[in-house]
Structures are given as C-alpha cells and as structure tokens.
Amino acid sequence: MMESFLVGSLPNASSFTTGGNLLRSKHRANKNIYYASSYAPKASQQERKTKKEDNILSFQRPSLNSHFKCIEGLSTNQERNRKCVVQASPMPSFEYEHHASGAKNILDSVKNFLEAFYMFCTPYAMIGRTISTISACLLAVNKLSDISPLFFTGLLQIMIPFLFMDIYIAGINQLFDVEIDKINKPYLPLASGKLSITSGVIIVASCLIMSFGSAWIMGSWPVIWSLLACSTLWTCYSANVPLLRWKRRPVLAAMCFLIPWAFVFPIAFFFHIQTFVFKRPAMFPRSLNFVMVFMSLYSIGIALFKDLPDIEGDKKHGISTFATRFGQKPVFWFCVSLFEIAFGIALGVGATSSFMWSKIVTGMGNVVLASVLWHNAKSVDLKSKASLSSFYMLAWKLLFAEYLLMPLVR
C-alpha cells in the first residue's frame, strides 16, 4: 500500500527505482511471486515515519530539483524495509537565464547592426576622402609653425560634416540601387537584407541634416558650399526620378566624380584653412593647381573603372556605361592610361620643383606608384569580377599614397 501511495502521490513517480523489481525476480526464480499489494504486514515505527515524510514531500513543492532513490530489501523475517534518500539541488534561476539570454540577444543585434552600418558607409571611399582632406589642408601650410592646434581645429571642422556627408552619399546610391546591387554587390546591407529600406532612409536623412547642421554651426562658407555641391551632384547621380539618375548617362556620371574629387574637395579644403582658419588672402598656389590637374585625370579613370565589375547588372537594368557600350577591355586600358598619365604629370611637376628634397621624394614616389600600377594591370583577368574589383581597390590605394606626396610638391 505504501508503494502504491508513493507512486500515485509524488510528481515524478517514474523517477523511483525500487527494490521491488529485485524482489520479484528472486521470487520468480523460486516460482513464488509476491506483490506489494498482497503482502501488508504491520508497519514498523520506522516505516510509518517514512510514510509521513513522503506525504509531506508529495504535497510540498519547494524550488528544488529532488532526486529520490528508494532501496528495498528483505529482512530475515520477510518484512520489507524501505530507505528513501532525498538529494536536493537548487533549481536554476529561470529569471536570471532569461535576463542573460536577453542581454546576449541585444549584444548580437547591436553587433550585427554595426557590421551592416560599416558596409553601408562604403569605407574605402570614406578613407579616400579623409586622406584627401588632410592632403589639401596641408597645401595651405607654408611653414612648420602652421601645424598648430589652430590647424587641427580647422581640420576637425571639415572632418565632422563630411563624415556625415560621406554616409549620405554612399547611402543614397544604395537606396536607389537595391535591385542592381542584388546582382552586382549582394554583400551590401540593403541588398542582402541586413538593413531594411526604412533604416537606410532614416540613416541617410539624419546624416544629411547633421552634415549641414554642423557646418552651419561652425560657419565656414567654403565647407558649406562644398557640402551643397557634393550632395546635389550625388543626389542627381543616384536618384531615380525624372531628369536625374545621371549614372545612366556616362558623361554626366563621369562629371559627378570629376567635379567633387578634382575641384570641390581640394579647393574647398584649401580655402577653408587658408582663409577661414589662417585668415590669409585667397590664392591658387602651384601645388593646388597640380592637384586639380592630377585629380581630373585620376577621378575620370576611377569613374569609368568602377563600372567594369558591374557590367552584368548594369546591362540587365538598362544602365548605359562606357563599359556596356565599348566593352571591358578598351575601357580597362583607357583607365590604366589615365592613371599612368596622372602619375607622369606628378613626376614632371616634382622634377621642376625648386627644392631638391621635393624633387627626390616626389620623383621616386611617383615612379614606384606608376610601376606598381602597370605591373598589376598586366595580370588582371577581365572575365573575373574578383580580379577587376581587386585592381579597382589597388587604384584607390595608389591614390591614397599619392595624397601623401601632393603636399610635398612645392
């Protein structure tokens, strides 16, 4: 009867392992089967005490995981003695586990968003613009004492608004190119679904507002006008509305690269330091003229080359580029020629400098850059999107290196 009560009353009856099985097996061997329900001797005092404890355990459910081990055996007078051993361990705190799981999910979401946001910003273009800013600002430095806290303050006044503008430029292009990017650049966050269109719109609008807002607070008109020119050109380049979407027209698309990189950036950044920070009269020094000529050639090469890896998606969506019109090979070597001519001009300008150190550094530097470009151009597989993309990134890296040489042209 006690066995029947325990099995019926305890919540985890299946967890009991009784010695009754062993007893039954022994009696079967002797062909005498005894059942607990048919053998009910007078309960001993110890058995009544055990029954009372089991009844208490069956109705009380504390926050413990209880593991019961029941051992049965036979005494010499064929009375069953049962020992119940209770092993208790604290139950896990489900509230704590839920809190930990929630915190982990939040951290994972933040991490995934930051990774998607990083790709959304097109970092290589942002790095290039940042280095170009430093290079153009250094053109206004006439002596070492000009590199002062005042100079770095003026540099920061450019960096902040253009950081937001870089994100706007990258984002507005991706927002209108989602379907094309699913073919050409499926790793981008909007094309892959890592960022929603709504999130992209919010990021782009917020960055545009913060870009102009921070520039207006600082009050530098060269910076304000450069932001206005860049945002206008790149909106015309990307926006799929009547009279815009200039990326469909090869000449207009090339102008959207040429004007900012060759004229807006160097002139605005130089004049910001020259007139707004140092309070000096406006002028066009030899070094600034060289930068505009070099960047006119190099930016056109960049503008034409960027479409080479994307020719498949552009053809499918009716985007007319020089690559889709004239083929990859002619456009590729035309771009390489523009890059080499730009390095050649830099070499010539450096060689005519009145300072020996400028001749040596700029001359040797441009020879090395031109040689690296030509060596890698000969090994490019025009049928491989990965090979074309790799060379495109190399062109950007060589431009970054040239930016370090530009301030040395005197």
Automatic annotation (TrEMBL):
It is a multi-pass membrane protein. Pfam families: UbiA. Keywords: Chloroplast, Membrane, Plastid, Transferase, Transit peptide, Transmembrane, Transmembrane helix. It comes from the Eukaryota. Its main location: plastid. The keyword Cytoplasm does not apply. It is found in: Plastid, Chloroplast membrane. This is PT3 protein. It comes from Lotus japonicus.
